[in-house]
Amino acid sequence: xxxxLKEELSIFKETVIRxxxxxxAPEYEQxxxxxxxxxxxxxxxxxxxxxxxxxxxxxxxxxxxxxxxFLVVExxxxxxxxxxxxxLLVHADIAAHYILNMGTxxxxxxxxxxxxxxxxxxxxxxxxxxxGSDLQGMKTYAKRTNDGWSISGSKTFISNGxxxxxxxxxxxxxxxxxxxKGTTLFLxxxxxxxxxRGQNLNKLGQHASDTSELFFDNxxxxxxxxxxxxxxxxxxxxxxxxxERLACAVAGVGHAKGALNLxxxxxKERQAxxxxxxxxxxxxxxxxxxxxxxxxxxxxxxxxxxLLMAKNLSASQAAMAKYSCTEMEGKVIDLALQMFxxxxxxxEYPISRFYVDARVQRIYGGTSEIMKEIIGKDVIGRL
Length: 383
Ligand SMILES: Cc1cc2nc3c(=O)[nH]c(=O)nc-3n(C[C@H](O)[C@H](O)[C@H](O)COP(=O)(O)OP(=O)(O)OC[C@H]3O[C@@H](n4cnc5c(N)ncnc54)[C@H](O)[C@@H]3O)c2cc1C
Known about the structure:
- By secondary structure, the protein is α+β, with helices and mostly antiparallel strands.
- The protein folds into 3 domains: about 120 residues, Orthogonal Bundle (Butyryl-Coa Dehydrogenase, subunit A, domain 1); about 110 residues, Beta Barrel (Butyryl-CoA Dehydrogenase, subunit A, domain 2), CATH 2.40.110; about 150 residues, Up-down Bundle (Butyryl-CoA Dehydrogenase, subunit A, domain 3), CATH 1.20.140.10.
- The protein contains 10 helices and 10 strands.
- The strands form 3 sheets. Strands 1-4-5-8 form a 4-stranded mixed sheet, covered by helices on one side. A 4-stranded antiparallel sheet has the order 2-3-7-6, covered by helices on one side. The chain has a two-stranded antiparallel ribbon with strand order 9-10.
- The site of flavin-adenine dinucleotide has 20 residues, from strand 1, strand 3 and helix 10.
């Protein structure tokens, strides 16, 4: 990374931290209680230039390197506001880039400027009750009509499910072909007839993040709603996965850094056997492990972000980052919570929220087991 970029990022970081302290921290508890972040907040982020910063200037973005986007996600995760980090990531690092990379000129002009201002929130809809890790089980079907397609089916566990205005929906378009073939991506607007948002699901953590079921009952769409090529939705999905998985990894590293910071403050204050627990050798050893893991994974992120920018991050490397960074996140947060003793288990101690929020990082965006399948097949295939 050049010195110039480092300097720009460090100035941007101050803006982001100030924004988190002033605009997120005072509201976050209420959002968690409400189980949703108000839509208007995304516009606040947009006004501050914190949404989709790396989109091209012609759509209203800053055209800056992806590092700026990742910095926003990492700082929010580090501060412990993980519901926001997760929703933001889906909007800015996944949905917006599907449209940028696969959309027609008209689609890009319709959605991207509004995604940058926060007036339009994006969601990505793959998972169904019978299709998670194995998307070949997808049942949502788009039937050809005279002037387009009619989509019927359902999706579940969709992040931004309540707040989104544009949904990128994967549906089968060709039942004749087996496996991953014959799937198409569609852009479905939130107000389209036949489309219905289901309940905002109750979760173990990330309460402020809206995660929903979605229903499609003969939703009529035209050619203008097809994202990418008909029957080639999985190719688009494969193309976008490295960025999606690296973004999850970035959030994981930020989250682990935040937990380490909380633990460091606490062990210096908490007294046991006549001195701060930081003076206990076992605590120091654990801190050494945590700090080493955070450092290692930060370096991995730095290197892989460069590869992503150079369009050289492979599916296997992205899987390594997602797998290793989110597993590390879980371990570091668990150790940090342990240092808080019983207080760590109390809701008023932020570390307890880190703990519940982190768990799903090893599940969504591809489970750790699926990541290992991708890595294992790639590595063995090279022999
Ligand atoms: C909070 C949250 C937000 C989400 N957001 C979105 C979203 O925005 N959009 C979206 O489309 N989806 C989203 N998901 C869905 C998520 O991506 C899936 O839950 C995930 O891919 C796993 O699918 P599944 O839940 O059906 O589990 P399953 O696929 O049924 O897996 C069950 C278990 O079997 C294991 N398993 C399955 N196959 C293999 C294999 N071949 N080898 C080894 N182990 C295997 C899995 O690792 C897992 O441990 C979200 C989920 C959650 C919980």
